């Protein structure tokens, strides 16, 4: 009996040790992917080797999707669910309306010469951005920073509040590549909003809609210049 108890205790200890190592490696992986890669890209761009950001984003997203599809623990229904399009969509739209009013007033006050400049001066380019930005930028970012991030690192982090904060910081950090403090601040706040929506609904479509609303609005109101290649 004592031998059996010792064997079980030893087996449990090995499992706990293996789980601890797994969490450690996941945390290291998180740091390398979400902070290491943007840092390398930033250093390359500052050194004169400019990796195009959108193609790089699409390549990374393709790799992320491949890993998700091959992961037996990933619930693929996340990619199709329309949960949250009721009460949560009303919350998203209400908060967006308030935020948009504040950002519009701020832009008109601080940068009056830039206010609504893209639709006024280059309407065709503005229309292209409204169509292509959600597909080529928003959806890949949401697959990486919400779907993959929350699936992959929930076990390593544990507390969903910490996971939400980490995802927002990572989302804000990658926007250092645009070379403007306002893009980092806005995306840090946006990361919290989008992460909260995803945690509450597990719907990539609702969180992508939310992200697209804010992004398209920023390009419309005159803040889009902080969100295209600068560094």
Describe the structure.
One of its GO terms (molecular function) is endopeptidase activity. It holds the Pfam family Rce1-like. Keywords: Hydrolase, Membrane, Protease, Transmembrane, Transmembrane helix. It is a single chain. The model is unreliable at about 10-20 (pLDDT under 50). Helix 2 packs across helix 5, helix 5 (about 125-155) packs antiparallel against helix 6 (about 160-175) and helix 7 (about 180-200) runs antiparallel to helix 8. About 80% of the residues lie in helices and about 0% in strands. It has one domain (about 50-225). With about 230 residues, the protein is mainly α. The protein is globular. The longest helix is centred in the N-terminal third of the chain and has 45 residues, at about 1-45. The termini are far apart. The chain has eight helices and no strands.
């Amino acid at each position: 009996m004592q031998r059996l108890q010792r064997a079980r205790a030893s087996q449990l200890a090995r499992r706990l040790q293996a789980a601890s190592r797994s969490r450690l490696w996941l945390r290291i992986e998180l740091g390398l992917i979400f902070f290491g890669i943007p840092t390398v890209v930033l250093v390359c761009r500052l050194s004169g080797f400019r990796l195009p950001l959108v193609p790089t984003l699409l390549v990374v997203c393709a790799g992320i999707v491949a890993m998700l599809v091959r992961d037996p623990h990933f619930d693929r229904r996340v990619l199709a669910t329309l949960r949250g399009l009721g009460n949560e969509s009303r919350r998203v739209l209400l908060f967006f309306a308030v935020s948009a009013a504040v950002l519009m007033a701020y832009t008109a006050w601080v940068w009056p010469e830039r206010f609504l400049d893209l639709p006024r001066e280059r309407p065709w380019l503005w229309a292209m951005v409204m169509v292509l930005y959600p597909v080529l930028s928003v959806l890949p970012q949401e697959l990486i920073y919400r779907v993959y991030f929350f699936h992959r690192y929930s076990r390593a982090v544990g507390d969903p509040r910490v996971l939400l904060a980490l995802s927002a910081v990572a989302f804000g950090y990658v926007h250092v590549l645009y070379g403007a403090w306002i893009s980092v601040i806005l995306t840090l706040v946006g990361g919290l909003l989008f992460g909260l929506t995803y945690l509450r609904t597990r719907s990539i479509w609702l969180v992508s809609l939310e992200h697209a609303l804010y992004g398209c609005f920023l390009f419309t109101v005159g803040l889009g210049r902080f969100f295209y290649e600068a560094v």
